[in-house]
Amino acid sequence: MKNESYCRTVMDKMYEFSGDAPLPFMSRLEIAFHVLFCTNCAGEIARLENVRSIMRTDFLPPSPDLEDSVMSLISAETVEISGEAWGESPEVSFRLWVITGLIIFFSLGSSIFNMDFMKVAAVSGSSFLLPIGIIFGAVVTGYGAIFIGSHLKEFSDRFGLH
User: Which residues, 6 or more positions from 143, have their beta carbon under 8 angstroms from its beta carbon?
Assistant: First the structure.
């Protein structure tokens, strides 16, 4: 059976087969009969089955079913939001946090006046100031976030936010 259009029809049936549901019996019988006489289609179908096998097992390995175990652990936890569980008083005083923050702020700000910085800025131009600004902003923002997070109980008590 060297009819090209018939080969194309048989291969189209194979390509439409998604692998999830079996082919109808008559289609399987027609493909099996065609493959007996057409070596080109037999090789193509063998390659297609190999690809499907690889895609099922090797390409995306099955992920472990962690959802149920994680959700059961989350539901088993109890969160206490009163008293001691809300947060202890910080070990470092409020005044020391502010002094440390000012030291960091002024040391970053004064690094612009360093001689090495001036040489690099002169060679690179004003485009060098963008990464410096991003670093400066990230450090100040990070320090501020840690400061607020560590003193959240004090701030909520002071401003009556319970």
Answer: 101, 104
Domain boundaries, the chain: 4-59, 85-159
Q: Which two tokens stand for residue 39?
A: 């070596």
| DSSP annotation string for 88-138 | PPPSS-HHHHHHHHHHHHHHHHHGGGSHHHHHHHHHHGGGGHHHHHHHHHH
- Please name which of 137, 138, 117 lies closest in space to residue 128, comparing C-alpha atoms: 117
Confidence of residue 136 (pLDDT cuts 50, 70, 90): confident
Longest dimension (CA), the chain: 91
Residue 138: band (very low, low, confident or very high) from pLDDT cuts 50, 70, 90: very high
The structure's pTM equals 0.38
